[in-house]
Amino acid sequence: MARRRDIGTDDPRVRVRPGRGSRPRTKRRPDYSGAPRGSVTSVDRGRYGVLSDDGVALVAVKAREIPSVVIGDRVALTSDLSGKKDTLARIVEVDPRETELARSAEDGESSGQQRVIVANADQLLIVTALADPPPRPGMIDRCLVAAYDGGLRPILCLTKSDLTSDAEMRRLYEPLDLEIVTTSIDTSGNATGMAELRELLGGSRTVLIGHSGVGKSTLVNELVPDAARKTGDVNVVTGRGRHTSTSAIAFVSEDGTWIIDTPGVRSFGLAHVEPDDLLRGFDDLSRVAAECPRGCEHRADSLECALSDYAQTSPRAAARVESYRRLLAAREAALPDYER
């Protein structure tokens, strides 16, 4: 016997429309494998600059189901791809990333959370001034670790060589088999080292990163004459540069060279990097650590740690071991309590 539907009354005059069946929501997504592709060149408040594979500069929005899009992402596109004024394309899919440059927040509610800055870059140009402001090896080391962890080739760019010698910084980092280029651009526009730098960057996708005031925007303007990035001075009281670039942007040349400028950073958290991965930023220490006992954590109080013995061999070795152990401590401090 069929079960009678309860309509809330026994009055036969009441007629109830038959219920509409509900179809289960499908998890199958449209196939965008054949959709036009492009690369993201800028991100600004929900609008994405995209250079299509046809060479058209587009403005796009992303589909709601896509969690995040960053500069360098390869994306599938639909809607209006004409690039005309006031038209919008739509990002419907993000291709798998080949490389990721990521950093972790170091304070606030998001402490320890990973944030991808740029995708699919080939190189990371770590820009540091030799003076005004003075170099900060700790920041350089963090960027090196992030580069190796993300699959990028690191290059160290020493600016303002007209103010002081680069000998000490080269002595500190050349043992890492790290490509180092020294540059100087004075107020009259006279530049040195730029030919070597252009050769290193040509045909590649390179991210520039560094503290405010190190001359990063000046470099970008020299490399990309139409970039018109703002430049600033160093605060005479704090010794820190003022932020001039407020958002990341990629400048793409006809030969396929990408120059990706990022805002000046105060810190570079590494909570997303596993401890074993930190040694990838220290080639000299990695060979030494192979002699450590199994399970060695490489801290100053670790028993029979080969790094402690190595640190006694020279001032340079001591500085490298100290820097590596400082990164270990900084990473742990950025982790939530339950992950320590």
From TrEMBL:
Biased region (Basic residues) positions are: 15-28
- The residues that hold GTP are 159-162, 210-218
Give the main EC class.
hydrolase
The free-text note explaining how the cofactor binds reads: Binds 1 zinc ion per subunit.
EC? 3.6.1.-
Fetch the InterPro entries from UniProt. Answer: G_CP_dom (IPR030378), P-loop_NTPase (IPR027417), Ribosome_biogen_GTPase_RsgA (IPR004881), RsgA_GTPase_dom (IPR010914)
Pfam name, any one: RsgA_GTPase
- Please give the Gene Ontology molecular function terms for this protein: GTP binding; GTPase activity; metal ion binding; rRNA binding
| Region spans: Disordered | 1-46
Query: Where is this protein localized, as stated in its record?
Result: Cytoplasm
Question: Quick one: which residues bind Zn(2+)?
Answer: 292, 296, 298, 305
Q: Which Gene3D superfamilies match?
A: P-loop containing nucleotide triphosphate hydrolases (3.40.50.300), Probable gtpase engc, domain 3 (1.10.40.50)
Instruction: Give GO terms for biological process.
Output: ribosomal small subunit biogenesis
Q: Which residues form the EngC GTPase domain?
A: 119-266
| Chief place where the protein resides | cytoplasm
PANTHER family, per this entry? Answer: SMALL RIBOSOMAL SUBUNIT BIOGENESIS GTPASE RSGA, SMALL RIBOSOMAL SUBUNIT BIOGENESIS GTPASE RSGA 1, MITOCHONDRIAL-RELATED
Q: What does this protein do?
A: One of several proteins that assist in the late maturation steps of the functional core of the 30S ribosomal subunit. Helps release RbfA from mature subunits. May play a role in the assembly of ribosomal proteins into the subunit. Circularly permuted GTPase that catalyzes slow GTP hydrolysis, GTPase activity is stimulated by the 30S ribosomal subunit.
| Protein name, per record | Small ribosomal subunit biogenesis GTPase RsgA
Q: Which gene codes for it?
A: rsgA
